[in-house]
Write the structure tokens for this entry.
Amino acid sequence: MQHTLALFQQIVTQLLKDEQDRPVANFIPSNNLFETLDLSLQEKPALEENFVKSLSELVLTSPRTATQAFFNQLFGGRNEKAILGDLLAVILNNSMYTYKAAGPQVGVEKAVLEKVCELMGWGRESAGTIAPGGSMTNFMAMLMARDSKDASVRKTGVSRKMTVYTSTESHYSIPKNAAFSGIGRSQVRYIPVDERGRMVSIELENRILKDLAEGYLPTLINATAGTTVLGAFDAIPELVALGKKYGVWVHVDGAYCGAVLFSKKYKPLVKGVEAVDSFSFNAHKMIGTPLTCSLLLVKDKNKLFHSFANEADYLYQTDEDEFNPGKTSLQCGRRNDALKFWTLWKSVGTEGLEQIVDKQFELAEVARSYIENHPDYILYSFKDSISVCFNYKGIPARELCTQLYEKSKLLVGYGAFGNNEFIRLVTINVQNEPEDILNFFKVIETFVAENELLLAAKTE
């Protein structure tokens, strides 16, 4: 193990040094991948020198998600205290279904979940769990909504036509989850949004009324706190009011931006969240822990047990259910994703997490200000968002993003809203400073100036 840890340190040191010189790894076309890297597996053990060479080359050519040139996904950066927790979780290798297998690590998870419930404004009757991604937490919320609407579903299956309501800008996991849950993709109702990407509540109510008249069973309203493109926040109080009026479970998918809970300044963006039935956010996004760390919080913890508890004497042999997290999880074997969040939170405090969240909005404001003060740019997004959407010199966004990627200059994605397609810059990496955001634009401008003929040819 000591030898392997030394090898790990050697490769990581090499990576960190290389990132300084090349914030974007050299592009390898997918059709050349297996010719460029030795990814083959053989019957015989690899020689040590060949193993180290193959592993080093693999690490050094993988996308670099922690540098000042990565703005492509809704995560980024590298927090050393969170990484410490993740490395220790790997070494300890506890599975988080029973206290017997995880011991004090169950306490770590409970401490994190209980503190977040407190921030939600909930009491001891609330609880939560941790899952590998926002798609999973959305799925679990949908299952609880389904079971809450019809308690017999767990035994007899879905027998009535249930409906799910979500905005046209919501995450793509919603229709997938409707298929998995037995509700069905065809029973997902996509509610129109306003000019800023927020669900229109009057349209939601009209659709609920139509479904009730046609004999459907309205089951779940899925609100979004930070849509994937514009970073918009649905108006939670309006949706909660409709949920109560028609007896529909209200879930807030805050995978992207739900961590505004930690900020006094930006928590008003999720005003009314204390009244929802369930809420989720990804600590590997705004909070900056390593992938993955997704939290699902439920106002009534009995709903978790009702939907996910199952007896298994070969597993649950000690302690009460409160200390056997497998009783409230979709999974059985589950890695310890709480520890990295706990080490970060413990090291910086709630005040430190607030600073992490606030800085992302500050960096977004730097970007918006730059765009608004340069005539070659068009801005498509709004304040109170860490998604900054724009176009430069009328160049098609997807072509510019692709060329920047293939030429190893920047990793940034594109999105669309209405009839516009644009570059989407996300300021989620708090290791960045304002000068890194300004450099982002400088790289684009320099690249376009040097490749105008290439870009013109590609778009003809």
Remarks:
- The chain has two domains: 2-64, 84-343.
- The mean pLDDT is 96.
